[in-house]
Amino acid sequence: MKKIALSFGAAALAAGMSPAVSAQTFDGPFIGAQAGWSEHDAGTFSTRLGNLAASRSHDAVSAGVFAGYDRQIGSRFVIGAEVGLDFGINDRFTRDTGTALMSVDPKRSIDLTARAGYLVTDNTLIYARGGYTNARFRTSIKDRSSLRSSTENRDGWLIGGGVERAFTDRISTRLEYRYSDLSDGRGKFDRHQVLVGVAYRL
Predict the structure, then answer these.
(1) What is the pLDDT of residues 61-108, one digit of tens each?
(2) pLDDT of 114 higher than 70
(3) Which sequence ranges are marked TM in the entry (predicted)?
């Protein structure tokens, strides 16, 4: 968490030294790409193979794309909606229970969120985000007699926040933290992410 706080502080400091851009930069459609750190924190949760006592945390790299639309209200407030698609890199984690080897492999996640923000300068937006997320997992259990596998989607919700800085009327970068609850009402399966993104305004 200390690294996260330092990163946000550095981003805010750099934002204050950025050249001025159009007052309506954060308005209209955009597309972009993002990448960063992801951690899955699993306790005991339910799957099609039964209840799994994972009790594991696993760090990985996350990368994906996003698209959305912002609307600037007045001179300082921005609201918007966004859809994103993310993939984990080397994010499969395993646990040996002594009688079986269990593995969980997150395949991809889809996010549909809204955000609201405040322009602290004409080119620096601080915002909060929240909405729906859906993740696809492949779960496997191997014991002495068999190997069982199942792939399923898990619904959840996410919240987060970040800072976005515009370098030109078209290009901006952002740093964001997200927390997702993917338990789907069946135990504990959480995800933490710190993502760096680049957006292009259309």
Answers:
(1) 999 999 999 999 999 999 999 999 999 988 888 878 777 888 888 889
(2) yes
(3) none
The mean per-residue pLDDT over the stretch 41-47 comes to 80
pTM exceeds cut of 0.70: yes
Domain 2-201 coded CATH 2.40.160.20: yes
| CA pair distance 7, 26, nearest whole angstrom | 22
- Whether the pLDDT of residue 1 is over 80: the answer is no
Instruction: Give me the residue spans of the domains in the chain.
Output: 2-201
